[in-house]
Amino acid sequence: MKTTTVKQNTERQHWLKIAFWLSMVTIFYNMLEGVISTYFGMEDETLALFGFGVDSFVEVISGIGIAHMVYRMQTNPEAKNDRFERQALRITGFSFYLLAFGISASSILTIVAGGQPETTRVGIIISVISIVTMYALVHYKMKAGKKLNSSPIISDANCTKTCLYLSLLLLLSSGLYELFRIPYIDAIGAIGIAVFAVKEGKEAFDKAKGKDCCGGACHT
Prior knowledge:
By secondary structure, the protein is mostly helical.
């Protein structure tokens, strides 16, 4: 019995380490993605890419909260989410709402003014890289969550899945504009990102209240 318990604890620590490093990869990848996306979003005047980049920066805040949570699970498995995690989630939620408002307003003004991007090639490249990266992160986060029987880690995997959908949306809007020069498709793609941001913001506030959610219904 004792040997079995030691083995289970060793396996749990192994998967907690994997979950921690997955959260670190998420943080650093989103930082890099955010810098590149916002720079080229402004350079090429593509709102969808710029909004995608700002969303990546917000995901960094969320990722820091997740990394802290996994570290807490390693050192104190019985403790519930602490003040740092709840505050990180509230800041994340507020940031998503602010992003949604800013991107929506900018998109409407762009449509009214008839503005169009110079090119959306960078958006296509970044979205393809992001789709591959997010797919891998979702797979391994979900595996770690199931191995640890951890609903917060599974919830984080579902949140990463939302980032995958955002990447697909960016690829669609950027690809359609680059291929066919469809008017306002970039601004419409940016509005789509704003809709996702509102959803992510609500889920961040719900999780700060102690509910497990993301990509579906929230529950306590």
